[in-house]
Each structure stands twice: as structure tokens, then as C-alpha cells.
Amino acid sequence: MKIGILSRNKNLYSTRRLKEAAEERGHEVAIINVLRCYMNIASSNPEIHYDGKVLEGFDAIIPRIGASITFYGTAVVRQFEMMGVFPLNESVAISRSRDKLRSLQLLSRKGIGLPVTGFASSPRDTDDLLNLVGGAPVIVKLLEGTQGKGVVLAETRKAAESVVEAFRGLNANFLVQEFVKEANGADIRCFIVGDKVVAAMKRQGQEGEFRSNLHRGGTAELIRITPEERSTAVRASRIMGLNVSGVDILRSNHGPVVLEVNSSPGLEGIEIATDKDVAGMIIEYIEKNAKVGKTRTRGAG
Ligand code: ADP
What we know:
Helices cover about 30% and strands about 25% of the residues. It is an alpha+beta fold and about 300 residues long. The chain folds into three domains: about 100 residues, Rossmann fold (3-Layer(aba) Sandwich); about 60 residues, ATP-grasp fold, A domain (Dna Ligase, domain 1, 2-Layer Sandwich); about 100 residues, ATP-grasp fold, B domain (D-amino Acid Aminotransferase, Chain A, domain 1). Strand 1, helix 1 and strand 2 form a beta-alpha-beta unit. It is globular, with a radius of gyration of 20 Å. It starts with a strand and ends in a 12-residue tail after the last helix. The structure holds adenosine-5'-diphosphate (ADP). The site of adenosine-5'-diphosphate has 22 residues, from strand 9, strand 11, strand 15 and strand 16.
């Protein structure tokens, strides 16, 4: 097969591993920087141009679209879909997962366990917003944040009010969320391929840090997850309409709660922590499922 990996940097661990795994299995691979793609949308024959040439003959693409280029990146994925090329994750599913509020609303509608969450833009009544999620301690999160930036633990009501007021002053959209203290600074990343959790790791924040992000010095190790956690992760991914995803779960007193469903989950942390060939499993999934024109939109709204 001819597989395109949509990535801006061929040296990234995930990009390298996917290329290597595909080539090992006898496929031809091209790494495509989406920002260099351009296209004629009005043409009746959809095509994508790249450095003066037409991209042709692809059987499948693997979108690895960074959060900062979601808008243009998903437009390029959509164009591939119009050309009948099988995308590992569809453009609508990627867009859906990038909108945190829309994602939480979809998951909640389908009964997935979530931390008690309120969202707001410019609330006049900070008190009532905080009451909505049970008061301090509380987590306040900027919607645009990644890698744990913009995630604040306000331990007292006074601190929570100050953070909410500061965010309001920035005209930022934010969430207030029940602080799941019993998670003890750890979360679980479930890596989904198709309808299976193929690997799972526990990420633990540094001493005194409630955020477990590896970028913030957290450590990762292999973990055995419960059947309930497994089915929660698989269902969350399916609701988002993603074939491959990273579902982040906290262990709360009221069962597993989903924090986020990531549509371009990194391979480095999970492959190293679990010693599994996740890249190989992704390529195998493509071999089984990539059929020309199989690009129908799945998942809810
Ligand atoms: P990002 O998408 O920026 O990584 P997250 O919402 O995943 O932001 O939060 C970063 C980390 O903070 C999580 O991995 C988790 O360890 C911790 N965290 C986030 N929300 C909560 C919460 N409600 N209760 C306890 N810990 C949380």
C-alpha cells in the first residue's frame, strides 16, 4: 500500500516509528507536511498539490495534526477523504476531539463517567459557578491549554475566585472541575486501536504535582486496567468516532472518569512504558480496514 503520514516533522518519534513499521511490512510511505499542501476546492476532480506536484495513488493517510494547525490540517484530511483515500482518523472526528466542550458534552450524553464539570465564559456569579461543581478544592482549566499548561488547582474558595476572575479578565473560555484528589496525581492513558485498548500506562506526576503530564516531569509505567476502565475507554473513543486515540482516565471514588480523548496520541511514552509495538498495530489496522472510498462519517454530532 501507499501510505501518507501527515506530519510536519519527520524526526518526531511517532512519525519515525509509523514510517518504520509501515516499511517493515512492505508499504511505501510518504511524509506530507500539511501546511505545504494546497488544493483547488472548486474542481470536480478533487486533488492535492504539493511542491508543484499532484499527490496521487495513496491508499491511506495517517493524520498527525498538531493542535495549533487543526483548522488547516483537517481541511487537508477532508480533501483526501473527497479523493476516496482512507484516513486513519476522519477529519470530523479530529475536529470534534479538539473541541473540549463539545467532546465532554458528547461523552456525557452517552453516559460516560466524567469529573463534575462546569464551563463558563464571563460568569457574573463566580460563587454559583463554584457551587455547581461542589466548591473548593477545584480545578480551573483554560480550554486552549495542552500539556498541562493552563490547568490550575485552586485549593481554597478564595484562590478559586481569583483564578476565575483572572481568566475572565483574559476573555478566555474555561472549565471548572471537581478535583479528583483520590487519583493522587496519576492518570491512565489507554491507547485505542480499532475497538481495543492495545496498551495502557499509568502516568504519575512528580512529588507534590497533581498534573501527571510527561512533559512536566511525570513518569510512566505499564498498568493493568480494570474491565470497567477498558470498556469506558473503548466507548469514549467510539463516541468520538476515532479509530485510533489516547483516552485519559482518572481513578475516582465514583469509578473511572474520562479527562480527554486525544486524536493524535504520541507513541513514545506508551511504547517505551509498555514495550509494545503500537506503531505496528496501527499499520495492521490500516491493512485490514483501508478500502477505497471507506470514508463515511461516524460518531455523534
Ligand atoms: P492537558 O490537556 O493540558 O494535559 P488535562 O486536562 O489533561 O490538561 O490535565 C493535565 C493533568 O492534570 C492530567 O493529566 C491530570 O493528571 C491532572 N488533572 C486534570 N484534571 C484533573 C481533575 N479534575 N482532578 C485531578 N487531577 C486532574
